[in-house]
Amino acid sequence: MAQVPQTFFDALAVRTWCGLALESLGRAREEIDAINVYPVADSDTGTNLYLTVESAVAAVEAVFTAYDVGKPTLADAARAMAHGALIGARGNSGTILAQLLRGMAQVLAADGETAHTDGSGLRLALRQAADSARQAVAHPVEGTVLTVASAAADAADGAAGHDCGAVARAAYEGARTALAATPGQLAVLRRAGVVDAGGRGLLAVLGALVETFTGEAAPVVWPGAHARVDAGSPVGDGVPLPDVEDCADVGEAGGPAFEVIYLLEAEDAAVARLRERLDGLGDSLVIVGGDGLWNVHVHVDDAGAAVEAGVEAGRPYRIRITHFGAGDAHTTGERLPRERVQRAVVAVVPGEGLAGLYGEAGATTVLARPGEPPASGELVEAVRRAHAREVVLLPNDAELRHTAAAAAEQARTEGIRVALIPTRSAVQGIAALAVHEPERRFDEDVVSMTSAAGATRYAEVAVAERQSWTMAGICQAGDVLGLIDGDVAVIGTDVTRTAEAVLDRMLSAGGELVTLVLGDEAPGTIAERLEARVRESYLAVDTVVYRGGRQGALLLIGVE
Question: How do residues 235-260 score in pLDDT, each as one tens digit?
């Protein structure tokens, strides 16, 4: 964590603020989840906000890491913060927070050469944040995070001087007062006796901003599950707040059955048409982003239609569809407790096709976009979502072993028994999942899955992005690379020929089953060519082919 306080709003202040905001949301996550009753009482607002900010932190840290000497500009750090939040935004609350951060970044990065800004710039950034977030929501509702954000901007406008600390503190106090008033603005909050969960999350983020510029923690504590503010604060005066279970029966009844979220590459005009289409399909519509990349969030009854609308507008990916469930808080206003299953598998997968394959096998999946691996918080959330007493975790990437280990350790502190199998490729995960038997003793199942994964050699065929030294010699940008067990073994110019050479090398040591996972960019005839080669040259070997979708590598190969 960078040293606080910060004098000006520069790149280091962005980094410090993001880190402090993540810590603050981490402490308040469970309490915010507990008071989440609007728009759906699904107890995940705190978690969604945490995961959104965690993605922003990762993006900012990546920018700082890229500088061997010196540090990034304010524009670099602000854009990274906004981009990270956009691609990692979760749920209604996280999507709105991503737009709030994007609005701030638009002001902070307006002059790409400016090293820092003062309180005047912070005031403008907070105003742009509140206005852009309100514009992103199809039907703004008062008594929500939008109200709290607008109040923060109004209070910041009234702060005198150019000191960032004074402006941040004014914004925080304005937000705190507005948060206390939310039960009087929204009936569902008043019935539950709680403040708005999204607004409470924003208060934590603004409290981190105060600490960034003053070095002093904002005076808010929400002990236990009752989420109270310090004595004397207007939020805490005489408002008893319920436990998690008490919040479940006060959600809005009769709403749509599905939450649909996806990232979308599309032009502005297409997104305008998409807004109209989705607005007619459901509610809780929020579309945030710009410059060709958008995050789309909507609640609908026809999830397929919502995705199809995205396909018509551009290229949707990282599609997440959550069924609120018959008889849950959204569809009936009453949440029924779900009993934990005994055992589940959680797996990281590199493409939508494999996510479907793993899902059909009963696994809970975390989609990893090429170049943007999931953070530990996202893995922990997937373990929670599996709702099991015992979980087998498959990271399916050698680079994720430390992240997965941290997630497993966190889940264990919550009473979940987690076994981490160090799978280094999705094809090893497929082999492990194939022998998974939930009825066996946990240790026996883990040993069997680990053995199957370890007996599977893995390879991938990809295109080199730049010139570099490899185990097979020097490759040039555009060369086709065949990697076996993580090391470059073949450098070629033709995708199919390179894949054939890789497959021959792998099968020279024997094998019984070849697994091929095709990416979207793989040649159309490559599967047929490779199947024919196996059939003609390796008589005792079977081949199975899967479509991986947009997975980064052109082809994944597994040999058991």
Answer: 343 333 333 333 333 334 457 878 88
Q: What fold is seen in the domain 457-559?
A: Hypothetical Protein Tm841; Chain: A;domain 3 (3.30.1180)
Q: Tokens 């901003």 map to which residue? A: 209
Strands (DSSP E) found in 352-410: 364-367, 388-394
pTM above 0.70, yes or no: no
Following DSSP, what letter does each residue of 146-209 receive, concatenated? HHHHHHHHHHHHT--SS-HHHHHHHHHHHHHHHHHHHHHH-HHHHHHT---HHHHHHHHHHHHH
What does the DSSP 8-state code read for residue 398?
G
- Amino acid letter, residue 467: Q
List C-alpha distances in Å: 496 to 316, 458, 477, 503.
Answer: 28, 17, 18, 10
Sheet of 258-265: strand order equals 282-290, 293-300, 258-265, 315-323
* CA–CA dist 527, 276 (Å, integer): 41
Question: 236 by DSSP, 3-state: which?
Answer: coil
Q: How would you label 458-485 residue by residue, b for 16+ Cβ within 10 Å and e otherwise? A: bbbbbebeeeeebebeebeeebbbbbbe
**329-362: pLDDT as tens digits:** 333 333 444 567 889 999 999 877 888 888 888 8
- The Cα-based distances of 498 to 467, 478, 501, 522 in angstroms read 18, 13, 5, 12
| Cβ burial, residue 363 (10 Å; 0-12/13-18/19+) | buried
pLDDT tens digits for range 526-558: 999 999 999 888 888 999 998 888 777 899 999
Q: Which CATH number fits domain 9-214: 3.40.50.1980, 1.25.40.340, 3.30.2130.30, 3.30.565.10?
A: 1.25.40.340
CB neighbour list of residue 202: distance below 8 Å, 6 or more residues apart? 97, 100, 145, 148, 149, 152, 175
